[in-house]
Amino acid sequence: MEAPKLRGMFRNVRTKPRSFVFKSRHLSDDPPQWSERKRRIESEVAKERGEKVPEQNMDSSIRFRKGGSVRKAARKANIRVILIGVVLLWITWKMMVWAETTEFGKMLEFIRDNG
């Protein structure tokens, strides 16, 4: 039986936290990408040997895209950023006009002149 490890005063001996490894009963041990890779390699080896490879094992050269959805989303995001920038500039301009037309503007002029 192993003695328990106590934490030292200077903590130079680190203890590992408790852990466990979960093994699923329902899923296979091989990840799906490995089985796909194995199928592709077997079809390549069969091609090199001159054997006929079934059509379902052949990789398709067709690539499907979502109609430029990435481009559309980027364009909408850019338009949104420009719109927010325009609104912020307009608010800043309104604040400057307000500051010049009120007593606060007169105080700013006094500070600038006597500064």
Number of strands: 0
- Low-pLDDT runs of 5+ residues are none
Mean of all residue-level pLDDT scores: 78
What share of the residues does DSSP label as strand, in percent? under 5%
Helical proportion, percent range: 40-55%
Question: Helix and strand string, N-terminal first?
Answer: HHH
Counting helices, strands and paired strands, the structural category is mainly alpha
Question: Which radius of gyration do the C-alpha atoms yield?
Answer: 35 Å
Q: Helical segment tally?
A: 3
What characteristic shape results from the CA principal axes? flat
In short:
The protein is mostly helical. 55% of the residues lie in helices and 0% in strands. The chain has three helices and no strands.
Give structural notes.
By secondary structure, this protein is an all-alpha fold. Among the domains are: 30-60; 70-115. It contains three helices and no strands. It has helices at 32-49, 69-101, 103-114. α2 (69-101) crosses α3. It is flat and about 90 Å long. The N and C termini lie far apart (82 Å).
SSE layout:
Blueprint: H1 32-49, H2 69-101, H3 103-114
Helix pairs in contact: 2-3
Question: Which features would summarize this protein structure in a list?
Answer:
115 residues; mainly alpha; 3 helices; 0% strand; flat
